[in-house]
Write a structure and sequence with these properties.
homotetramer; 121 residues; mainly alpha; Arc Repressor Mutant, subunit A; 2 domains; two-stranded antiparallel sheet; 5 helices; 2 strands; 59% helix; globular; DNA-binding
Chain lengths: 121, 121, 121, 121
DNA sequence: GTGGTCTAGACCACG
DNA sequence: GTGGTCTAGACCACC
Protein backbone atom coordinates (compact mmCIF):
# COMPACT_ATOMS: atom_id res chain seq x y z
CA UNK A 1 0.00 0.00 0.00
CA UNK A 2 1.84 3.00 -1.29
CA UNK A 3 -0.79 5.60 -1.94
CA UNK A 4 -0.60 9.34 -2.35
CA UNK A 5 -3.74 11.36 -1.82
CA UNK A 6 -4.16 14.93 -2.94
CA UNK A 7 -6.97 16.78 -1.23
CA UNK A 8 -6.50 19.77 -3.47
CA UNK A 9 -6.82 17.81 -6.69
CA UNK A 10 -10.01 18.24 -8.65
CA UNK A 11 -10.10 14.48 -8.94
CA UNK A 12 -12.27 12.75 -6.32
CA UNK A 13 -10.32 10.97 -3.61
CA UNK A 14 -12.00 7.64 -4.22
CA UNK A 15 -10.98 7.84 -7.87
CA UNK A 16 -7.39 8.62 -6.97
CA UNK A 17 -7.43 5.57 -4.76
CA UNK A 18 -8.97 3.42 -7.45
CA UNK A 19 -6.54 4.54 -10.12
CA UNK A 20 -3.44 4.04 -8.03
CA UNK A 21 -4.39 0.64 -6.72
CA UNK A 22 -5.64 -0.66 -10.06
CA UNK A 23 -2.37 0.49 -11.63
CA UNK A 24 -0.37 -1.28 -8.92
CA UNK A 25 -2.33 -4.46 -9.43
CA UNK A 26 -2.11 -4.41 -13.20
CA UNK A 27 1.58 -3.74 -13.30
CA UNK A 28 2.14 -6.61 -10.89
CA UNK A 29 3.23 -4.70 -7.82
CA UNK A 30 0.43 -6.25 -5.80
CA UNK A 31 0.43 -9.99 -6.23
CA UNK A 32 -2.62 -12.19 -6.66
CA UNK A 33 -4.16 -13.04 -3.32
CA UNK A 34 -2.48 -10.13 -1.60
CA UNK A 35 -4.69 -8.94 1.22
CA UNK A 36 -5.53 -5.27 1.09
CA UNK A 37 -5.61 -3.51 4.44
CA UNK A 38 -9.03 -3.47 6.12
CA UNK A 39 -11.02 -0.49 4.93
CA UNK A 40 -11.08 1.03 8.39
CA UNK A 41 -7.33 0.79 8.71
CA UNK A 42 -6.79 2.13 5.21
CA UNK A 43 -9.15 5.00 5.98
CA UNK A 44 -7.28 6.09 9.09
CA UNK A 45 -3.88 5.63 7.48
CA UNK A 46 -4.87 7.70 4.47
CA UNK A 47 -6.76 10.21 6.56
CA UNK A 48 -10.00 9.80 4.67
CA UNK A 49 -13.43 8.49 5.49
CA UNK A 50 -14.28 4.80 5.51
CA UNK A 51 -16.92 5.40 2.87
CA UNK A 52 -14.40 6.98 0.56
CA UNK A 53 -12.16 3.94 0.78
CA UNK A 54 -15.11 1.64 0.34
CA UNK A 55 -16.20 3.43 -2.81
CA UNK A 56 -12.78 2.86 -4.34
CA UNK A 57 -12.74 -0.78 -3.24
CA UNK A 58 -16.20 -1.32 -4.74
CA UNK A 59 -15.03 -0.05 -8.09
CA UNK A 60 -12.02 -2.36 -7.93
CA UNK A 61 -14.30 -5.29 -7.19
CA UNK A 62 -16.67 -4.32 -9.98
CA UNK A 63 -13.80 -4.66 -12.42
CA UNK A 64 -12.78 -7.98 -10.85
CA UNK A 65 -9.44 -6.59 -9.78
CA UNK A 66 -10.11 -7.61 -6.19
CA UNK A 67 -12.57 -9.91 -4.49
CA UNK A 68 -14.15 -9.65 -1.08
CA UNK A 69 -14.64 -12.33 1.54
CA UNK A 70 -16.95 -10.91 4.14
CA UNK A 71 -15.37 -11.18 7.53
CA UNK A 72 -11.94 -11.81 6.06
CA UNK A 73 -11.10 -8.83 3.92
CA UNK A 74 -10.38 -7.90 0.33
CA UNK A 75 -7.81 -9.63 -1.83
CA UNK A 76 -6.17 -9.04 -5.17
CA UNK A 77 -7.84 -11.18 -7.82
CA UNK A 78 -6.12 -14.09 -9.49
CA UNK A 79 -5.20 -12.93 -12.95
CA UNK A 80 -2.78 -14.61 -15.30
CA UNK A 81 0.03 -12.41 -16.63
CA UNK A 82 -1.70 -12.43 -20.00
CA UNK A 83 -4.99 -11.32 -18.50
CA UNK A 84 -3.26 -8.62 -16.52
CA UNK A 85 -1.53 -7.28 -19.62
CA UNK A 86 -4.80 -7.35 -21.51
CA UNK A 87 -6.70 -5.60 -18.74
CA UNK A 88 -3.92 -3.03 -18.39
CA UNK A 89 -3.96 -2.25 -22.08
CA UNK A 90 -7.76 -2.08 -22.18
CA UNK A 91 -7.73 0.40 -19.34
CA UNK A 92 -5.01 2.52 -20.89
CA UNK A 93 -6.50 2.44 -24.38
CA UNK A 94 -9.80 3.65 -23.01
CA UNK A 95 -8.09 6.66 -21.50
CA UNK A 96 -5.76 7.11 -24.45
CA UNK A 97 -8.65 7.38 -26.90
CA UNK A 98 -9.87 10.44 -24.99
CA UNK A 99 -6.39 11.91 -24.86
CA UNK A 100 -5.93 11.31 -28.58
CA UNK A 101 -9.18 13.14 -29.31
CA UNK A 102 -7.87 16.10 -27.38
CA UNK A 103 -4.60 16.16 -29.30
CA UNK A 104 -6.45 15.77 -32.58
CA UNK A 105 -8.71 18.70 -31.77
CA UNK A 106 -5.56 20.85 -31.92
CA UNK A 107 -4.70 19.40 -35.31
CA UNK A 108 -1.70 17.41 -34.13
CA UNK A 109 -0.40 14.60 -36.30
CA UNK A 110 0.68 11.38 -34.67
CA UNK A 111 4.28 12.33 -35.30
CA UNK A 112 3.83 15.62 -33.46
CA UNK A 113 2.22 13.75 -30.58
CA UNK A 114 5.21 11.43 -30.40
CA UNK A 115 7.62 14.35 -30.49
CA UNK A 116 5.89 16.20 -27.66
CA UNK A 117 5.24 13.06 -25.66
CA UNK A 118 8.94 12.19 -25.76
CA UNK A 119 9.66 15.58 -24.19
CA UNK A 120 7.46 15.08 -21.18
CA UNK A 121 8.00 11.38 -20.66
CA UNK B 1 -18.73 27.97 -34.77
CA UNK B 2 -18.66 24.25 -35.00
CA UNK B 3 -19.23 22.99 -31.49
CA UNK B 4 -20.43 19.66 -30.16
CA UNK B 5 -21.90 19.63 -26.66
CA UNK B 6 -22.69 16.57 -24.60
CA UNK B 7 -25.11 17.08 -21.75
CA UNK B 8 -24.45 13.69 -20.26
CA UNK B 9 -20.67 13.96 -20.29
CA UNK B 10 -18.98 14.15 -16.93
CA UNK B 11 -17.06 17.14 -18.29
CA UNK B 12 -18.71 20.47 -17.48
CA UNK B 13 -20.35 22.08 -20.48
CA UNK B 14 -18.49 25.35 -20.08
CA UNK B 15 -15.25 23.42 -20.22
CA UNK B 16 -16.28 21.57 -23.35
CA UNK B 17 -16.99 24.94 -24.91
CA UNK B 18 -13.71 26.39 -23.74
CA UNK B 19 -11.64 23.46 -24.96
CA UNK B 20 -13.20 23.30 -28.39
CA UNK B 21 -13.00 27.03 -29.08
CA UNK B 22 -9.49 27.42 -27.75
CA UNK B 23 -8.41 24.52 -29.93
CA UNK B 24 -10.03 26.09 -32.98
CA UNK B 25 -8.32 29.39 -32.29
CA UNK B 26 -4.89 27.90 -31.70
CA UNK B 27 -4.93 25.74 -34.77
CA UNK B 28 -5.91 28.74 -36.86
CA UNK B 29 -9.46 27.81 -37.73
CA UNK B 30 -10.76 30.99 -36.18
CA UNK B 31 -8.73 33.92 -37.47
CA UNK B 32 -7.54 36.87 -35.45
CA UNK B 33 -10.24 39.47 -35.10
CA UNK B 34 -12.99 36.98 -35.87
CA UNK B 35 -16.11 38.00 -34.02
CA UNK B 36 -17.59 35.33 -31.81
CA UNK B 37 -21.38 35.17 -31.82
CA UNK B 38 -23.13 37.15 -29.09
CA UNK B 39 -23.50 35.19 -25.87
CA UNK B 40 -27.28 35.00 -26.12
CA UNK B 41 -27.16 33.75 -29.68
CA UNK B 42 -24.49 31.17 -28.90
CA UNK B 43 -26.50 29.99 -25.91
CA UNK B 44 -29.68 29.42 -27.89
CA UNK B 45 -27.84 27.84 -30.82
CA UNK B 46 -26.03 25.41 -28.54
CA UNK B 47 -29.03 24.85 -26.31
CA UNK B 48 -27.17 25.77 -23.15
CA UNK B 49 -27.55 28.42 -20.50
CA UNK B 50 -26.22 31.93 -21.02
CA UNK B 51 -24.30 31.56 -17.79
CA UNK B 52 -22.53 28.55 -19.22
CA UNK B 53 -21.45 30.38 -22.36
CA UNK B 54 -20.34 33.35 -20.33
CA UNK B 55 -18.19 31.15 -18.14
CA UNK B 56 -16.46 29.67 -21.19
CA UNK B 57 -15.92 33.10 -22.75
CA UNK B 58 -14.45 34.41 -19.49
CA UNK B 59 -12.00 31.56 -19.40
CA UNK B 60 -10.98 32.28 -22.99
CA UNK B 61 -10.48 35.94 -22.14
CA UNK B 62 -8.51 35.07 -19.03
CA UNK B 63 -6.02 33.25 -21.24
CA UNK B 64 -5.98 36.16 -23.71
CA UNK B 65 -7.36 34.02 -26.49
CA UNK B 66 -10.21 36.47 -27.05
CA UNK B 67 -10.85 40.06 -26.03
CA UNK B 68 -14.08 41.88 -25.32
CA UNK B 69 -15.17 45.24 -26.63
CA UNK B 70 -18.08 46.32 -24.51
CA UNK B 71 -21.13 46.82 -26.62
CA UNK B 72 -19.52 45.23 -29.66
CA UNK B 73 -18.82 41.67 -28.66
CA UNK B 74 -15.92 39.25 -28.30
CA UNK B 75 -13.15 38.81 -30.84
CA UNK B 76 -10.34 36.36 -31.39
CA UNK B 77 -7.08 37.84 -30.11
CA UNK B 78 -4.28 38.92 -32.40
CA UNK B 79 -1.58 36.32 -32.14
CA UNK B 80 1.38 35.87 -34.40
CA UNK B 81 1.78 32.41 -35.91
CA UNK B 82 4.75 31.86 -33.61
CA UNK B 83 2.76 32.88 -30.55
CA UNK B 84 -0.09 30.65 -31.57
CA UNK B 85 2.19 27.68 -32.02
CA UNK B 86 3.79 28.42 -28.66
CA UNK B 87 0.45 28.73 -26.88
CA UNK B 88 -0.86 25.60 -28.57
CA UNK B 89 2.14 23.58 -27.48
CA UNK B 90 2.00 24.98 -23.96
CA UNK B 91 -1.60 23.93 -23.68
CA UNK B 92 -0.97 20.49 -25.10
CA UNK B 93 2.14 19.87 -23.05
CA UNK B 94 0.32 20.79 -19.88
CA UNK B 95 -2.30 18.18 -20.61
CA UNK B 96 0.23 15.71 -21.94
CA UNK B 97 2.23 15.80 -18.73
CA UNK B 98 -0.84 14.59 -16.86
CA UNK B 99 -1.53 11.92 -19.43
CA UNK B 100 2.08 10.77 -19.31
CA UNK B 101 1.89 10.45 -15.52
CA UNK B 102 -1.12 8.22 -15.94
CA UNK B 103 0.64 6.00 -18.45
CA UNK B 104 3.75 5.86 -16.28
CA UNK B 105 1.69 4.81 -13.28
CA UNK B 106 0.95 1.60 -15.17
CA UNK B 107 4.63 1.06 -15.82
CA UNK B 108 4.50 1.80 -19.54
CA UNK B 109 7.69 2.61 -21.39
CA UNK B 110 7.65 5.40 -23.94
CA UNK B 111 7.80 2.78 -26.67
CA UNK B 112 4.69 1.07 -25.33
CA UNK B 113 2.93 4.41 -25.20
CA UNK B 114 3.79 5.01 -28.85
CA UNK B 115 2.61 1.56 -29.82
CA UNK B 116 -0.75 1.94 -28.10
CA UNK B 117 -1.19 5.54 -29.17
CA UNK B 118 -0.70 4.56 -32.78
CA UNK B 119 -3.61 2.13 -32.42
CA UNK B 120 -6.09 4.73 -31.30
CA UNK B 121 -4.90 7.68 -33.36
CA UNK C 1 -42.83 6.72 -8.79
CA UNK C 2 -44.70 3.95 -7.12
CA UNK C 3 -42.25 2.38 -4.73
CA UNK C 4 -42.77 0.16 -1.72
CA UNK C 5 -39.96 -0.04 0.81
CA UNK C 6 -39.71 -2.73 3.44
CA UNK C 7 -37.44 -1.88 6.33
CA UNK C 8 -37.81 -5.33 7.78
CA UNK C 9 -36.79 -7.13 4.62
CA UNK C 10 -33.40 -8.73 4.61
CA UNK C 11 -32.86 -7.15 1.22
CA UNK C 12 -30.99 -3.82 1.33
CA UNK C 13 -33.17 -0.79 0.74
CA UNK C 14 -31.09 0.48 -2.16
CA UNK C 15 -31.52 -2.88 -3.87
CA UNK C 16 -35.27 -2.84 -3.38
CA UNK C 17 -35.28 0.58 -4.97
CA UNK C 18 -33.11 -0.56 -7.83
CA UNK C 19 -35.17 -3.64 -8.54
CA UNK C 20 -38.50 -1.89 -8.51
CA UNK C 21 -37.44 1.00 -10.68
CA UNK C 22 -35.54 -1.13 -13.16
CA UNK C 23 -38.60 -3.37 -13.46
CA UNK C 24 -40.82 -0.36 -14.05
CA UNK C 25 -38.50 0.95 -16.72
CA UNK C 26 -38.10 -2.36 -18.50
CA UNK C 27 -41.78 -3.13 -18.58
CA UNK C 28 -42.43 0.32 -20.04
CA UNK C 29 -44.20 1.93 -17.10
CA UNK C 30 -41.65 4.70 -17.01
CA UNK C 31 -41.19 6.17 -20.48
CA UNK C 32 -37.93 7.17 -22.05
CA UNK C 33 -36.89 10.63 -20.96
CA UNK C 34 -39.10 10.53 -17.90
CA UNK C 35 -37.54 12.61 -15.19
CA UNK C 36 -37.05 10.78 -11.93
CA UNK C 37 -37.70 12.83 -8.81
CA UNK C 38 -34.63 14.60 -7.40
CA UNK C 39 -32.77 12.29 -5.06
CA UNK C 40 -33.42 14.55 -2.10
CA UNK C 41 -37.13 14.59 -2.78
CA UNK C 42 -37.23 10.85 -3.36
CA UNK C 43 -35.33 10.34 -0.13
CA UNK C 44 -37.78 12.32 1.97
CA UNK C 45 -40.80 10.82 0.23
CA UNK C 46 -39.54 7.30 0.79
CA UNK C 47 -38.27 8.05 4.25
CA UNK C 48 -34.74 6.93 3.55
CA UNK C 49 -31.38 8.62 3.38
CA UNK C 50 -30.19 10.52 0.34
CA UNK C 51 -27.23 8.21 0.07
CA UNK C 52 -29.47 5.18 -0.08
CA UNK C 53 -31.40 6.64 -2.98
CA UNK C 54 -28.21 7.68 -4.69
CA UNK C 55 -26.79 4.17 -4.44
CA UNK C 56 -29.84 2.80 -6.23
CA UNK C 57 -29.70 5.53 -8.87
CA UNK C 58 -26.00 4.82 -9.46
CA UNK C 59 -26.72 1.19 -10.13
CA UNK C 60 -29.46 2.17 -12.57
CA UNK C 61 -27.06 4.47 -14.37
CA UNK C 62 -24.36 1.82 -14.45
CA UNK C 63 -26.73 -0.42 -16.38
CA UNK C 64 -27.66 2.47 -18.69
CA UNK C 65 -31.27 2.39 -17.53
CA UNK C 66 -31.11 6.07 -16.62
CA UNK C 67 -28.74 8.91 -17.39
CA UNK C 68 -27.79 11.90 -15.31
CA UNK C 69 -27.49 15.52 -16.33
CA UNK C 70 -25.79 17.33 -13.51
CA UNK C 71 -27.89 20.23 -12.39
CA UNK C 72 -30.93 18.93 -14.20
CA UNK C 73 -31.70 15.54 -12.75
CA UNK C 74 -31.89 11.89 -13.75
CA UNK C 75 -33.88 10.63 -16.70
CA UNK C 76 -35.00 7.28 -18.03
CA UNK C 77 -32.71 6.18 -20.85
CA UNK C 78 -33.82 6.00 -24.45
CA UNK C 79 -34.24 2.34 -25.23
CA UNK C 80 -36.05 0.89 -28.20
CA UNK C 81 -38.82 -1.61 -27.40
CA UNK C 82 -36.54 -4.35 -28.72
CA UNK C 83 -33.68 -3.27 -26.50
CA UNK C 84 -36.00 -3.07 -23.52
CA UNK C 85 -37.29 -6.56 -24.11
CA UNK C 86 -33.76 -7.84 -24.52
CA UNK C 87 -32.54 -6.12 -21.37
CA UNK C 88 -35.57 -7.35 -19.44
CA UNK C 89 -35.00 -10.92 -20.50
CA UNK C 90 -31.28 -10.70 -19.77
CA UNK C 91 -32.03 -9.48 -16.28
CA UNK C 92 -34.64 -12.12 -15.63
CA UNK C 93 -32.60 -14.97 -17.10
CA UNK C 94 -29.71 -14.05 -14.85
CA UNK C 95 -31.94 -14.37 -11.82
CA UNK C 96 -33.78 -17.38 -13.22
CA UNK C 97 -30.58 -19.35 -13.64
CA UNK C 98 -30.01 -19.09 -9.90
CA UNK C 99 -33.60 -20.03 -9.15
CA UNK C 100 -33.37 -23.01 -11.50
CA UNK C 101 -30.24 -24.22 -9.72
CA UNK C 102 -32.15 -24.12 -6.47
CA UNK C 103 -35.03 -26.13 -7.87
CA UNK C 104 -32.65 -28.60 -9.45
CA UNK C 105 -30.87 -29.11 -6.15
CA UNK C 106 -34.14 -30.61 -4.89
CA UNK C 107 -34.27 -32.92 -7.87
CA UNK C 108 -37.20 -31.21 -9.55
CA UNK C 109 -37.83 -31.84 -13.22
CA UNK C 110 -38.84 -28.95 -15.44
CA UNK C 111 -42.37 -30.31 -15.51
CA UNK C 112 -42.55 -30.29 -11.72
CA UNK C 113 -41.27 -26.72 -11.72
CA UNK C 114 -44.01 -25.73 -14.15
CA UNK C 115 -46.64 -27.46 -12.07
CA UNK C 116 -45.60 -25.76 -8.85
CA UNK C 117 -44.99 -22.41 -10.51
CA UNK C 118 -48.49 -22.45 -11.93
CA UNK C 119 -49.82 -22.83 -8.39
CA UNK C 120 -48.11 -19.75 -7.01
CA UNK C 121 -48.36 -17.53 -10.07
CA UNK D 1 -21.45 -35.27 2.18
CA UNK D 2 -21.10 -33.65 -1.18
CA UNK D 3 -21.00 -29.95 -0.52
CA UNK D 4 -19.71 -27.03 -2.59
CA UNK D 5 -18.86 -23.84 -0.71
CA UNK D 6 -18.13 -20.48 -2.25
CA UNK D 7 -16.29 -18.01 -0.06
CA UNK D 8 -16.85 -15.13 -2.41
CA UNK D 9 -20.57 -15.64 -2.81
CA UNK D 10 -22.83 -13.01 -1.32
CA UNK D 11 -24.78 -15.83 0.29
CA UNK D 12 -23.61 -16.63 3.83
CA UNK D 13 -21.66 -19.86 4.07
CA UNK D 14 -23.89 -21.30 6.77
CA UNK D 15 -26.86 -20.79 4.50
CA UNK D 16 -25.13 -22.48 1.59
CA UNK D 17 -24.51 -25.42 3.89
CA UNK D 18 -28.07 -25.44 5.14
CA UNK D 19 -29.60 -25.26 1.69
CA UNK D 20 -27.50 -28.01 0.19
CA UNK D 21 -27.93 -30.44 3.05
CA UNK D 22 -31.64 -29.85 3.43
CA UNK D 23 -32.05 -30.40 -0.28
CA UNK D 24 -30.11 -33.66 -0.09
CA UNK D 25 -32.24 -34.85 2.79
CA UNK D 26 -35.53 -33.94 1.20
CA UNK D 27 -34.76 -35.54 -2.10
CA UNK D 28 -33.75 -38.71 -0.32
CA UNK D 29 -30.03 -38.68 -0.95
CA UNK D 30 -29.35 -38.75 2.76
CA UNK D 31 -31.40 -41.51 4.34
CA UNK D 32 -33.22 -41.34 7.65
CA UNK D 33 -30.88 -42.02 10.53
CA UNK D 34 -27.81 -41.21 8.48
CA UNK D 35 -25.15 -39.79 10.75
CA UNK D 36 -23.80 -36.44 9.74
CA UNK D 37 -20.07 -35.99 10.23
CA UNK D 38 -19.02 -34.42 13.53
CA UNK D 39 -18.99 -30.64 13.40
CA UNK D 40 -15.23 -30.40 13.78
CA UNK D 41 -14.62 -32.87 10.98
CA UNK D 42 -17.11 -31.20 8.67
CA UNK D 43 -15.52 -27.85 9.40
CA UNK D 44 -12.02 -28.97 8.51
CA UNK D 45 -13.16 -30.90 5.45
CA UNK D 46 -15.06 -27.90 4.10
CA UNK D 47 -12.46 -25.42 5.18
CA UNK D 48 -14.89 -23.31 7.16
CA UNK D 49 -15.25 -22.28 10.76
CA UNK D 50 -16.83 -24.58 13.34
CA UNK D 51 -19.19 -21.78 14.20
CA UNK D 52 -20.39 -21.73 10.62
CA UNK D 53 -21.11 -25.44 10.55
CA UNK D 54 -22.84 -25.25 13.90
CA UNK D 55 -25.10 -22.49 12.65
CA UNK D 56 -26.13 -24.56 9.64
CA UNK D 57 -26.74 -27.66 11.79
CA UNK D 58 -28.85 -25.61 14.20
CA UNK D 59 -30.98 -24.37 11.36
CA UNK D 60 -31.45 -27.95 10.13
CA UNK D 61 -32.45 -29.05 13.62
CA UNK D 62 -34.82 -26.13 14.00
CA UNK D 63 -36.71 -27.38 10.96
CA UNK D 64 -36.63 -30.95 12.31
CA UNK D 65 -34.60 -32.17 9.37
CA UNK D 66 -31.97 -33.59 11.71
CA UNK D 67 -31.87 -34.41 15.41
CA UNK D 68 -29.01 -34.36 17.86
CA UNK D 69 -28.05 -37.06 20.34
CA UNK D 70 -25.68 -35.46 22.77
CA UNK D 71 -22.39 -37.26 22.72
CA UNK D 72 -23.29 -39.25 19.63
CA UNK D 73 -23.79 -36.68 16.89
CA UNK D 74 -26.42 -35.49 14.50
CA UNK D 75 -28.67 -37.75 12.45
CA UNK D 76 -31.10 -37.29 9.61
CA UNK D 77 -34.66 -37.24 10.93
CA UNK D 78 -37.14 -40.02 10.32
CA UNK D 79 -39.56 -38.78 7.74
CA UNK D 80 -42.04 -40.83 5.80
CA UNK D 81 -41.86 -40.47 2.01
CA UNK D 82 -45.07 -38.48 2.13
CA UNK D 83 -43.76 -36.15 4.78
CA UNK D 84 -40.53 -35.67 2.83
CA UNK D 85 -42.41 -34.80 -0.32
CA UNK D 86 -44.61 -32.41 1.61
CA UNK D 87 -41.68 -30.71 3.28
CA UNK D 88 -39.82 -30.50 0.01
CA UNK D 89 -42.72 -28.87 -1.73
CA UNK D 90 -43.29 -26.47 1.16
CA UNK D 91 -39.71 -25.37 0.99
CA UNK D 92 -39.74 -24.98 -2.75
CA UNK D 93 -43.09 -23.20 -2.85
CA UNK D 94 -41.90 -20.72 -0.27
CA UNK D 95 -38.96 -19.84 -2.43
CA UNK D 96 -40.96 -20.00 -5.60
CA UNK D 97 -43.47 -17.47 -4.36
CA UNK D 98 -40.65 -14.97 -3.99
CA UNK D 99 -39.28 -15.81 -7.40
CA UNK D 100 -42.73 -15.48 -8.95
CA UNK D 101 -43.13 -12.03 -7.40
CA UNK D 102 -39.89 -11.02 -9.03
CA UNK D 103 -40.97 -12.25 -12.44
CA UNK D 104 -44.35 -10.63 -12.05
CA UNK D 105 -42.74 -7.29 -11.19
CA UNK D 106 -41.37 -7.30 -14.73
CA UNK D 107 -44.82 -7.96 -16.14
CA UNK D 108 -44.12 -11.52 -17.23
CA UNK D 109 -47.02 -13.83 -17.94
CA UNK D 110 -46.85 -17.41 -16.72
CA UNK D 111 -46.27 -18.50 -20.31
CA UNK D 112 -43.28 -16.19 -20.64
CA UNK D 113 -41.91 -17.56 -17.39
CA UNK D 114 -42.21 -21.09 -18.73
CA UNK D 115 -40.54 -20.12 -21.98
CA UNK D 116 -37.58 -18.50 -20.26
CA UNK D 117 -37.32 -21.15 -17.57
CA UNK D 118 -37.10 -23.83 -20.21
CA UNK D 119 -34.08 -22.05 -21.64
CA UNK D 120 -32.09 -22.12 -18.44
CA UNK D 121 -33.21 -25.45 -17.09
C1' DG E 1 -32.38 24.39 -8.22
C1' DT E 2 -29.62 19.94 -9.35
C1' DG E 3 -26.26 16.06 -8.52
C1' DG E 4 -21.21 14.85 -6.65
C1' DT E 5 -18.43 14.21 -2.86
C1' DC E 6 -17.13 13.63 1.81
C1' DT E 7 -17.47 13.16 6.86
C1' DA E 8 -18.26 10.87 11.44
C1' DG E 9 -20.55 7.69 13.53
C1' DA E 10 -23.77 3.95 14.10
C1' DC E 11 -25.74 -0.87 13.86
C1' DC E 12 -25.81 -5.41 11.89
C1' DA E 13 -24.38 -10.10 9.91
C1' DC E 14 -20.75 -13.11 9.31
C1' DG E 15 -16.94 -15.95 10.85
C1' DG F 1 -12.06 -9.13 13.87
C1' DT F 2 -14.16 -8.22 9.01
C1' DG F 3 -17.23 -5.97 5.50
C1' DG F 4 -22.38 -4.26 4.50
C1' DT F 5 -25.66 -0.92 5.26
C1' DC F 6 -27.64 3.28 6.74
C1' DT F 7 -28.09 7.92 8.75
C1' DA F 8 -27.84 13.08 9.08
C1' DG F 9 -25.64 16.70 7.66
C1' DA F 10 -22.21 19.28 5.23
C1' DC F 11 -19.76 21.64 1.24
C1' DC F 12 -18.94 22.12 -3.61
C1' DA F 13 -19.57 22.59 -8.84
C1' DC F 14 -22.71 23.23 -12.32
C1' DC F 15 -26.62 25.35 -14.51
Amino acid sequence: MNIAISNTSEKPIYQQLFEQISAQILKGELESGYGLPPIRQAATELGVSIITVKKAWEELERLDLIYTITGKGCFVADLSPDEMLQRRNDMILQRMAIDADYYKSFGLTIEEVFELMRKVY
